[in-house]
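Work through what follows:
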Amino acid sequence: MTPDWLPLLDETATPSPALLVSPTAVEENLRRMIAHVGDPTRLRPHIKTHKLPQIVALQVSLGITKCKCATIAEAEMAAGAGAQEITVATQLVGPNVARFLALQRAFPLVAFSTIADDPGAVAALASAAHATATTIELLLDLDVGMARTGIAPGPAAAQLYRTIATTPGLRAGGLHAYDGHLRQPDFAERCAAAADGIARVDALRNDLVRAGVSVPRVVWGGTPTFPVHARRTGIECSPGTCVLWDASYRTQVPDLDFLNAAVLLTRVISRPGANRLCLDLGHKAVASEMPHPRAVFPAIPDARAVTHSEEHLVIETARAAGFSVGTALYALPWHICPTVALHDRVQIVRNRRVTESWPVVARARRLQF
């Protein structure tokens, strides 16, 4: 179903491919996130999805003053937009350590933190902080089943956390756990799948606290398990995709009721066969790391991708005869986060008209620092 803020009344004025964003739908999604947790201070949403200072500022205006990010550029953008507590959820290595320290110096009123899971990385961060007479707040990154980053909850994790807590130049900021691999469509099954990781992280936290080690916060989860963790107490939730939403999570986690606030505008640029349409929606306009469908077309429910290349997407549909060359179509991206990163600007839609465009500021790998 096409979102109710579309179609555009002035669609002939907007070149394609374009990424359209509705601030009204974004704000509604943020309000629904707050409703899930009951208090905006329990949210630390991931901003890698949108990379936009205007959305960070909107979050702050609604009381969501914390955020999580993936890059130094995203952290810098968020600080400039008014975020008060920012976690860089990537283990910093190489020159990024000095960049992080420079960012802290540039925004002294912002509480920055980052994550670590490796003793060598912890030592390097401590050394850099000590050399600059500053302090880095570190959260211990925990692997709860995704096997991407993090240390498994247990004795080794407890020891590494104690090292963080007792090393000059570092301040122990708590625990960080991401269970993005859990996407069971049935909510009860998702809760059951998350239970083991939750129990292991809770046990680690309790052991540390009983030993007199401060654990100021536990930052948990992404979007699919957001409703699981939202019902718990004493943790911060860090969903990201639900700010804009996409076709993937709409399909995979149907219990979540967020709105599609970002939609692609594309056009028919050729008709290569009786049942085929060629659209200007190539790899450079919609994320292509996933299998098809990489975009869902509400007006063409039977659309099937045939070929996909840099500038073209060829789809097959029994309805092809109804779409002449030049026809505008709307597509829900399957994966919104990398789709945003493909666009240098998003087109802002108010009252079904494009009113302005916003640069995707943190799409850049580097801003000032």
About this structure: The two ends are 42 Å apart (CA to CA). The domain at 23-242 is CATH 3.20.20.10 (TIM Barrel).
